[in-house]
């Protein structure tokens, strides 16, 4: 995918350090033990205390970055944190929330529907078996699927208490006000924040530059993740935003331009996958290995498979491919006139 939206000149600090990105708002690049290298957490200065947005992965290097980064902007993690907002349940965003809560005694907030979902994922071991069955059903070798499922579902200790946020809710934020926006696709119950006064969008993993959000179909994903992702992306067009603050990658200014690039990317990906099915039925795993690069780790193959499946399910719901199941799921193309818009 060609990109024309340019990154901002702001937030060029190294991983592990914090930088001011707007009045009273600082970005902290928290290192993560993943190919993404870092997750962006944001510290927002309040009249009394600080709001933290996303927590990062809970591991020694992440904790050290929080200690040094918070101190560098004048935030004492033991006394100054008034609340911790977590955009979604993934461990690179939720992971260190319990540690931060224990340090600060600040309350943790998530979207109301995400609280129960996060507990189901992280408080039980049954999701490992469910994920292994899911990967096997869509073409992965059963023994490899079990190993992949165990590696993908890492251990995570949930905060003792999580308070709910609701879609459309207005929250005071550093002398301004932000609207809670439901942003599914990458995660069913993800939220982002639109700070109207400062014209900021805390975009989590919904809109990023330099990489595309993984929109996958997992064993516990609600139906139609790609359609919901595109629909909620389109709703952001025209939003009064000067600066986009994503969960990964560089910050940037042109929200509408980036939305257009992301929609085009998924249009292209749908066409590529449709072409891969033109000769013979294939499992989602077979399609993913033809569409994505060869040198992926087992962890990355899981995400490639989930994203492939989200696109194939989208094509199936639009009548472009047919799903068959005989122990393993396969898809085949259905010859017909190409629709003008594959998202309809």
Automatic annotation (TrEMBL):
Q: Describe the location of the Metallo-beta-lactamase domain by residue ranges.
A: 38-248
Q: Which UniProt keywords apply?
A: Hydrolase
Task: Tell me yes or no: is Hydrolase among this UniProt entry's keywords.
Answer: yes
Residues folding into a coiled coil are none
Q: Which InterPro entries match?
A: B_lactamase-like_C (IPR048933), Metallo-B-lactamas (IPR001279), RibonucZ/Hydroxyglut_hydro (IPR036866), Sec-metab_biosynth-thioest (IPR050662), WH-like_DNA-bd_sf (IPR036388)
- Keyword Hydrolase present in the record's keywords: the answer is yes
Question: GO MF terms on file?
Answer: hydrolase activity
Q: Which Pfam families match?
A: B_lactamase-like_C, Lactamase_B
Q: Which SUPFAM superfamilies match?
A: Metallo-hydrolase/oxidoreductase
Question: Which PANTHER family does UniProt cross-reference here?
Answer: ENDORIBONUCLEASE LACTB2, METALLO-BETA-LACTAMASE SUPERFAMILY POTEIN
The protein's name in its UniProt record: MBL fold metallo-hydrolase
